[in-house]
Amino acid sequence: MNAPNGHAPAQGQHVNGAPRIGPVFALLPGQQLAAETVQEIVRELEVPFDPSVIEWRVTNTAQNKSRGQVIPYADQRAYTDRLNALFTPAGWTRKYAVHTSANFERSKDKKVVAKILVTCELTIAGLGSHSATGEEWADDENAGTSAEAQAFKRACSCFGLGRYLYYFVGTWVDLDDRKRPKRSPGLPDWATPEGWRRGLRPPGKSEGVVLAESRAVERRSAHGSTRNGNSAGNGELLRQIEAMAEPLGKRMYRSFLKALARVWDPKQIDDPALLQKILTHMQAAQRGLTRLQAALDRIDPDSLGPILVPLGVRSLDQVDNLNTLQRIIAAVEAAATTSK
Question: Which one-letter DSSP state was computed for residue 237?
C-alpha cells in the first residue's frame, strides 16, 4: 500500500545500506550510497504530487481575454513537504543568495526597471547539492518571494522532484471575468502518484527515456555535484531564454533546446553564440505567436481545424517548430483576409 502523496512506503528496514525509518531515508552528510540506493531515492523524488496540491496558472490569453492557456504547478510547500517526508527536516538544507540586476528596459511596456535575482542551493544529506536561479521584476511587490520560490523549485527539479511538471504543454480553457479558469483541466493518469507508479509516462516520453534522464540526475547526485552550468557572461542570455518558457509554452520551448543544442536545460550550454542563436529563434517564435493570435481573432474558430489537419497537428498546443508555426500563420492570415 502506498503512502499519501507518493511518499516512500513505511518499512522499518535497511535498503541497500541506507537505513529506512518509517517513510524516511535516514541519510548522513557525506555518506557514500550504493547506486541502487540513489536510484530508489530519485524514483521516490520523481513521483508526482498528489492532485489535491496542484494549482493552475494562466500563462497566455486570447485577445478578447475569454480564454487562456493554463499549466499546472505546485506551491513550494508541496516540495518542502515531500523533502521532509523522505529525509526529515534535518536531512536537507537550502541556502539563498539574492542579487539585483542593473536597470534595463522591459520589452513589454518599455519601462526601465531592475530584476531581483535569487540563487538557491539545495543540499540533501548523502546526495549532494544542486543550485538554480529564479528572477522577478523589482517593481513587483512580491518579487523576492516569487524569485525565491522559482529558484527553490528549479533546484528541486535537479534531483527529480517536480520534474514531471515540465512535461506539460499549455491547455486552453475558458476564463472568468477575473481571468481565472472557470474549470481546471483534469490531470492525466501519468501525472498522479498511482499512474506514475504503474509505469505511465508523458506522451512521447517512454519510461526508458525518463529513466535515462533520471540516471543523469542520479549520477550527479551520487557525486554530490552542484550544477551552475553557465559562466557569469552568459547570465543575461540565460535569463532571457528562461523567460521564454511561459510565452512559448513548454513544448515549443523544450523543442528549440533539443533541436538546436540537444539539451533540456539552457544552463547546460556554455557557448554564448549558441545561446544567442536559441534566443533569436525563440524571439521569432514569440513574434509569430503574437501575429497568429491577432489573426485567429478575425476568423471563425471552426475554420482552424481544416488548417491544422494537413500539417499533421490536431491543436495549436502541438506546434513545436518555426516552420509549422509559419505555415499556420500564413494560412490563418489568408483566411482572415478572405473572411473580411
Answer: H
Please say whether the beta carbons of 158 and 127 come within 8 A: no
pLDDT in tens, 101-113: 888 888 778 889 8
3-state secondary structure of 225: coil
pLDDT in tens, 297-327: 777 777 788 888 887 877 887 888 888 888 8
In this structure, what C-alpha cell is assigned to residue 24? 524516511
Print the domain residue range for 133.
Answer: 1-225
273 and 201 co-located in one domain: no
pLDDT tens figures, 71-119: 899 999 999 999 999 998 989 999 999 988 888 888 778 889 888 999 9
Residues 6+ positions from 312 with CB-CB distance below 8 Å: 324
* Same-domain pairing of 4 and 103: yes
Burial zone of 298 (CB within 10 Å; 0-12 exposed, 13-18 middle, 19+ buried): middle
Q: What is the Cα–Cα distance from 9 to 7, expressed in whole angstroms?
A: 6
pTM over 0.90: no
DSSP 175: B
Instruction: Name residue, grid cell 521516490.
Output: 44
Same domain membership, residue 196 and residue 273: no
Torsional sign, CA 28, 32, 38, 42: positive
How far apart are alpha carbons 107 and 244 in whole angstroms?
Answer: 12
What whole-number distance in Å separates Cα of residue 106 and Cα of residue 98?
21
Which residue, 269, 267, 155, 153, is CA-closest to 221? 155
190 & 279 share domain: no
Cα separation, 240 vs 243, in Å, equals 5
Give the CATH number, domain containing residue 137.
3.30.390.80
Q: Are strands 24-25 and 104-105 parallel, antiparallel or unpaired?
A: unpaired
CA nearest 246: which of 290, 286, 186? Answer: 286
Quickly list H helices, the chain.
35-46, 76-87, 143-158, 193-197, 207-222, 235-242, 245-248, 250-261, 272-296, 304-308, 322-338
3-state class (DSSP) for residue 13: strand
